[in-house]
Every structure is written in structure tokens, then in C-alpha cells.
Amino acid sequence: MTDIEIAQSTPIRPISEVAESIGISTDELEFYGKYKAKIDPLTIKRDKAPGKLILVTAITPTAAGEGKTTTTIGLADGLKKIGKNVMVALREPSLGPVFGVKGGATGGGYAQVVPMEDINLHFTGDFHAIGAANNLLAAMIDNHIYQGNELGIDPRRVTWRRCVDMNDRQLRFVVDGLGGKANGTPREDGYDITVASEIMAVLCLADDIHDLKERLARIIVGYNYDGEPVTAGQLKAAGAMAALLKDAMKPNLVQTLEGTPVFIHGGPFANIAHGCNSVIATKLAMKIGDYAVTEAGFGADLGAEKFLDIKCRYAGLKPSAVVLVGTVRALKLHGGADKKNLAEEDIDALIKGIPNLLKHASNIQNVYKLPCVVAINRFPTDTENEIKVIIDELKKINVNVILSEVWAKGGEGAIELANEVVRLCETDNDFTFAYEDEDSIETKIEKIVKKVYGGAGVDYTADAKKQLRTFKKLGYNRMPVCMAKTQYSLSDNAKLLGAPENFKVTVRNLKISAGAGFIVALTGEIMTMPGLPKVPAAENIDVDDNGVIKGLF
Q1: Helix axes 209-218 and 198-205, enclosed angle (nearest 10)
Q2: C-alpha to C-alpha distance for 53 and 285, rounded to whole angstroms
Q3: Are 200 and 211 in contact (CB under 8 A)?
Q4: Which residues pair with 505 in a beta bridge?
Q5: Pick from 92, 354, 400, 529: CA 20 to 30 A from residue 25's CA?
Q6: What's the confidence (pLDDT) of residue 325?
Q7: At residue 68, does pLDDT exceed 90?
Q8: What is the set of active-site residues?
Q9: For residues 205 and 209, what is the distance between their CA atoms, to the nearest angstrom?
Q10: Spatial contact of 29 and 15, defined as CB atoms under 8 Å apart
Q11: Distance between CA atoms of residues 430 and 370, nearest Å
């Protein structure tokens, strides 16, 4: 069966029962139908120490897939099966990948969160609220310019872009304000996908409504004629934006196919944003559960790096263990195997691809000083010889390997992994960041490139150098850095697979996300508005006469 067929054929409990199982009453729920609800974190009181935080990350993604979200969900179900009080905290899917090529973000097989159709489509409207807040600010910028421009905003230096939650390459670059004076000031503009909006990052990093409003007010929308930054606070937009985001700030409660409670909240991409679910949802999961399992997008060089260097830095979080997900198939692709032949044993390609896995595992252990276990998301075509090669190589760096069969078996396929994670959580760790607050922007970028990516250094375009000087002058030197780069390579070149060496990363643009609290460094050819593939997934999605959705993975 397909993922959606498995989800639709599995009976699930009313969300009120799931909430009751973790001590949340019906009065504390805001229902969105029978199987999903929002929770106001302020209503949840727990007199207990925060639970252990477990991060699930992965090797560099390939077309063969890795199964990071599936493993996250299966691990939580496995922890529940061995008697642990566990919560899950995941990101919300973006409609762009759902209708594009990547798919959704609700897991697969018998390790899914449900109702998967709702979650992968409109869910509870959080992304719509984020898009509305983003575009309200855009409208207020152009209206301010039209109505006399008291702040002296330079139309040529407006940096705030509109957004839409869809892959649409036609909107990357537009010219708007045409049609005469009554229709605004003509200028070059463009759209980002909603998950790349700074509003998304702000919502995911804010502690509460008060913090949300302060962060929104700090957002820089452009510069005036004197080169000084103009903020959303100066435009008096923060209050209205917060009003649109009031309900979106509340985490969404759903469940796995096995009834394990899950918070799904926020959804920034890890290749162009910081790639983690909200701080609010993570902390709430830790408040309720003895173990909180979360994930970070794409490979450990992107999602895990940003989870650790940005989210944990701001939220004061300390992970207890890290699970690194990989597949034999993906490692063979990294070693040069043909995608059409991945079902065949190929030890040579596997050995050539394993350095990618080793680099990510080494980063977790040696850069961030965290205990790590590798979960091999097993496929039926994986051979015993291939599995043994991976185990032997990881033993050399003192990392355990556990075979995960959660896609086929759900929590039962993760019991061994769950026991190993519990063991790791009981060990002490010396969690540290890849760079320090006091480091310059250039030093932070260089440390990420050299320590995490394994590169030789960084090149800057003339524009990037100019932006560096501007940010230093404005006093933004102490902010963390959010690297925007391809997810398909440890480098900024998607074609460099495995664990490349002696490469340089080119920073072509820098932008300030003062509300989120980080500087975005755009590298290579990365874009903040993806496009649809030649055959988008949307072509296979339909709904029958009874309202049942088909073809959604």
C-alpha cells in the first residue's frame, strides 16, 4: 500500500483521547475537527524537570531518500513501546514540496503522523497566517512610500519581499507598481516561498507573544536615502502582524499511527532558513514528556548545524543524544552508483560513499561534542555484506549502528534504536557550538565551512563584502549565521557528492534577519523561491466523489 492508503486504513483515536493520555483536558484544547487541535502553552502546567531532548538528523540527501522524519516518528513509537513517556516535535509541511517533488513531511509506511492529508495540505492555517502577516508588511511598506514616505524609504533598497507557499519560479523576479502614479512606485521586486519568510523564522524562535512582537518590530524592511535601516516597528506594523499570528503561535497536537502524541508547529526549510520546528513546541514537548524527539531538515550540515548553533543557542537547549539517519542506497549514490542499480550489491560504491556518513557522525561527536547513534533505514534489497561494511567503518570512530525497520514495522522496528537512545541519554556530554558569539561574521562562516562542511575556505563576491561592511557598521556582528546552500552536497556545489575536500564556498549575498536574530549567507546558486519539476506531484493528486484524497504519496 502507499503511505496515504496505510494512513487512511489505520484507525486513529480522537485527539481528545490523545490529549487526555498526556494530562491535557478538553478545556485546554482548541479543536480543528476530530483529529487535530491547538494548545495554548500558557495553560499547560507541569511540575517536572524538562525531558531529554533527542535530535534526529541525516546524511546528505539523495534521490534515493533517507527517511529522517519516518525514523523520528518510528523512534518515538519505539520509545513508547519500551514504556517511556515520549513526545514528538516536528515541522509543518510546505505546499511547495507537497505539490512539487519532495513530498510531505509526515513520515511513511507504518511510521506516520495523522491525519496526513490535513497536515500536508492546509492543516490549521498556520502557513496562511504567516503569509498574510508577511504580505501585510509588504503592503504597508509600499503604502508608506505612496502616502508621502515620511521615513524616506529608498524604493531601490526595499529588501522585504512578498511570499506565497508554493513553488513558483515565475515569481522570483517581478516588476510591480506599474500603471501610473495611482498604482504605486515602480520597482524591481520578487517573491519568496513562505517557509523562507523571516516571519516563519520569527514565529519558530519566539518564546511568547511579547517576544514575537519585539522580534517583528526589529525586522528590517529596507533602507532610507541615508543608508539607515528601516524597521517594521517604524512602520507601526508589528501589532497587526502579531494579531494575524496570534493563533498560529499555538502548537498543533496530532498523533502517530500508534497514538503517540505529536506537536507539529512551524516549518522553515533548512537549506534557505534554519530548518527547525518552533521553540515553543519543543519546550512544551520537553515539559510534558520525559523524552522529546525532534528533527531538523535535510542533512546534518544544514538542519542539525542550525538547530545546534541557532535554535539551541537562543532557546538555551541542550540535546542529550543525536540520531543520524542514512540508507545503504543513498550511500551508494554518494559513491557514484547508478540510481537504476541501487538494488544490486555494490560494495565499491558503498565504500566510496561512506565518508559522507562518517563526516556527519564526526561532526556531531567532535564539533558539537554530542553522543551519536547511526540508524540505517533498512531496505529489503540491502545485503548483509553492505550492512557489515557500514558497521565496521563506524566502529572505527566509536559510533554504534542500529538497523531501523520502522517503515514496515512502526515502533516495533525501532525498539533496539530506542534502547540505544535511552542509553545515550544517560551519558554526560559537553555540548558546544561550532563558533562563538564574539566571532566576526566572516569567522563564523569560515568555521562552519571548515569544521562542518570540511571545506578549505570562503570566497566573497563584491556585493557580499559590501554587505559585510554595512552589517558591521550597524552592529550586527554578534548574530549567529544561517547558511543558505544546496542540500545535496556538503559544499555549495550540488554535484560534489560524498565528502569532498579542498573546496571553497562562495558567499554571493548576505541579508540581515534582525527579527529572527541571524544573518543569512546565501551561497552558490541557492534560491529562496523553488520551482516545480518537469512532472510535479500535483499531476497525480486527486479527490474522489466521496471527498477522499488520492495520490498524496
Answers
A1: 150
A2: 9
A3: no
A4: 458
A5: 92
A6: 97
A7: yes
A8: 68, 70, 91, 102, 270, 298, 379, 407
A9: 11
A10: yes
A11: 7
